[in-house]
Specification:
The complex is a heterodimer of chains A (280) and B (350). Chain A is mostly helical. Chain A has 13 helices and no strands. The C terminus of chain A is likely disordered. With 350 residues, chain B is an alpha+beta fold. Chain B contains eight helices and 18 strands. Chain B is elongated, with a radius of gyration of 24 Å. In chain B, 41% of the residues are buried. The chains are: A mainly alpha (280), B alpha+beta (350).
């Protein structure tokens, strides 16, 4: 290897290492905090060497302030939002990518516009609407609210996957006597499997990590884990180690999904960056 | 030859918005025929093929297959198979699954599918590649896979859209021969789109020459080459392009730039004319049309000589002995039978 090449690699590694450090520091700090006692947490200067304890985990899992029910809540809402989103987004994005119909451009743009609205501006209207129909603090209510932003996002993301499949592929299937639905099922969907997986993961993670709508529109019955963690911060005191333990537990599924789907996600983020033009 | 597989276009019109792609096409393709749609890109040939396939709706006119009106039938209801220019193989399926897909869609039993897939694959010599995915095949193998997927169904009509255009030159020649043999052995009606006139000449039973949304001529390769119906067809078919020389026609001679050239036809009254002579029909001779050699392209077994006569570029194709070199002043002659005469205004053959 030429020296310049290895210098380059060292420089790249240094930059990458620095970036990684910045990103992982909070997570590592949180991880350390979750194993500390409250006294060690508040020690100043911070202690790096301490006697680790699982007390916080025991407390947030099985104690009086257990977040297990909240993890269940989060799972229900996130899974429901993901499944329903994909159920509608797959046919919708296929249609947007394929069919020629009047106002196609306008409807595609509308989908994008809904992503531009600041969510905080929607909280009060949503609250009033849900209150009116009695859906406050219900799984239905929160799931429906999540759909309002996950559905446009999923459609917008998946359209580019469907557009990447050449028209001829479908035409070949039609000539092979598949008909439109079976062409979609046997020929198109298997080819966008990766894109569907990525989109589903994004939708799930967005719902799982969501806090603002959950804290306002949820309640005692439906309290996702993000909100439950927030309850460790109160006027009298902040239970930092429990908060950290809760955060680590809440992060686990996210991290697992991330590791599992890393390859797909990177592909998903760069899709459309380089796209073969010249399609009809 | 099979008795089915006739196609008929009756006044087929296709418009995309305000542009008209096909201006009322009439066409009759006979059962068992190898029929080539030849034309430049944008001439409407591919649109015509896609209309046969049912992939494009018509704006007017009727399409009949074996006498039945299929104008509004779905692609899957027409019993036609198509090989796309891009092959359109299903990338997530193996070669065997690709070939078997049209059978699976009509509910053929798996054991029977396997038998027929092996059969079709053997016909195009890809029997050993059945477990591969299309991405693991060479261009030529992909093309064969696409062919096998078409023949496995025994459709009444094969539609091929520039199937050789993505192959390299050598493979294209080989595949062309094989394709011809395959079509003969299957005896199925085949409609083949190409812009390559050499392909058209070698493969076709009959050719339809498409120009700007019209069919300029339908005929056997020999007819189209020997008796082009219009100046445009004459210029399009044949390489190098036919030489076109404006002149005045009186009796059995055309006068061009003051030189009298004998032709086989006689005219009752003198008139303006466009004289066409194929480069291969022109000779460098002792008398005739004076010209100056500009360039000699040696093709090994023959040569193409570019000349100017009266400021007009002309070409002669022949053996090298008659060649000469750049700057030589020579005369060009041709037999009267080799002359094609066209109306200079509407381009029609006279």
């Amino acid at each position: 290897m030429k020296p310049s090449a290895s210098h380059r690699q060292i420089a790249l590694a240094a930059v990458a290492g620095f970036g990684l450090a910045v990103w992982t520091f909070p997570v590592i700090w949180g991880l350390l905090t979750s194993f500390k006692t409250e006294r060690d947490v508040l020690a100043y200067p911070p202690v790096w060497l301490f006697k680790p304890t699982l007390d916080s985990y025991r407390e947030v899992l099985f104690g009086a302030s257990s977040i297990l029910p909240n993890i269940v809540s989060s799972s229900i809402v996130s899974l429901a939002a993901t499944v329903i989103t994909m159920l509608f987004a797959i046919p919708a994005s296929y249609a947007l990518a394929r069919l020629r119909y009047p106002a196609k451009r306008a409807s595609g743009f509308y989908v994008l516009v809904t992503q531009m609205l600041p969510p905080v501006g929607l909280i009060i209207p949503y609250y009033l609407v849900l209150q009116k129909i009695g859906w406050l603090d219900t799984y239905t209510g929160l799931t429906v609210i999540y759909l309002t932003f996950s559905l446009p996002f999923a459609i917008w993301l998946m359209v580019s996957y469907f557009e990447d499949i050449p028209f001829e592929m479908e035409e070949a299937a039609l000539l092979d006597r598949a008909g439109r639905l079976r062409a979609l099922w046997y020929v198109i969907l298997p080819q966008v499997r990766g894109g569907i997986a990525v989109t589903a993961i994004f939708v799930f993670l967005n719902a799982w990590n969501e806090f603002m709508f959950a804290v306002v529109l949820g309640g005692n019955r439906v309290r996702p884990v993000t909100v439950a963690m927030f309850n460790f911060i109160s006027v009298e005191q902040t239970l930092w180690s429990r908060l950290a333990a809760g955060a680590i537990l809440a992060m686990l599924p996210v991290i697992l999904i991330g590791i599992f789907a890393q390859r797909h996600i990177v592909k998903g983020l760069t899709v459309g960056a380089v796209k073969g033009g010249g399609r009809r | 030859m099979s008795a089915t597989g006739s196609v008929r276009f009756e006044g087929v019109v296709k418009r995309h918005g305000t542009t008209t792609v096909l201006h009322g096409i009439d066409l009759a393709i006979h059962p068992g025929e190898f029929f080539v749609l030849l034309g430049l890109s944008g001439s409407g040939k591919t649109t015509a093929l896609r209309i046969m396939a049912g992939l494009e709706p018509v704006s007017g006119g009727r399409v009949l297959m074996d006498g039945a009106d299929v104008t509004h039938k779905e692609p899957g209801e027409r019993d036609v198979a198509m090989v796309f220019q891009s092959y359109a193989l299903y990338p997530h399926m193996t070669v065997a699954q690709n070939i078997g897909f049209p059978l699976k869609m009509v509910g053929v039993r798996p054991a029977e599918i396997e038998r027929q897939v092996a059969d079709a694959a053997a016909k195009v010599n890809i029997g050993h590649l059945l477990e591969r995915k299309p991405g693991q095949l060479s261009g030529g193998q992909q093309q064969r896979c696409a062919l096998a997927r078409a023949i496995v169904r025994h459709p009444r009509l094969f539609l091929l859209d520039e199937p050789l255009s993505n192959l390299d030159a050598k493979l294209r020649l080989e595949t062309r021969l094989e394709l011809h043999a395959l079509q003969r052995s299957l005896g199925a009606t085949t409609v083949y789109v190409t812009h390559d006139q050499e392909e058209a000449m070698t493969l076709a039973d009959r050719i339809a020459v498409f120009m700007e949304g019209h069919i300029a001529q339908v005929g056997t390769p020999r007819e189209v080459f020997a008796k082009p119906r219009t100046m445009a067809v004459a210029a399009f078919v044949g390489t190098p392009q036919m030489n076109l020389i404006p002149g005045t026609w009186a009796n059995d001679a055309v006068t061009a730039d003051g030189h009298v050239l004998q032709v086989a036809q006689t005219t009752p009254a003198p008139r303006d004319v466009m004289l066409g002579v194929r480069p291969s029909d022109m000779r460098i001779a002792a008398t005739g049309l004076p010209a100056r050699i500009e360039r000699v392209e040696d093709l090994g077994d023959s040569a193409i000589v570019s000349l100017t006569a009266g400021g007009r570029p002309l070409k002669v194709k022949g053996d090298l002995q008659n060649g000469g070199k750049r700057g030589d002043r020579v005369f060009l002659s041709f037999t009267p039978q080799a002359a094609h005469l066209f109306d200079p205004n509407d381009g029609a053959r006279l």
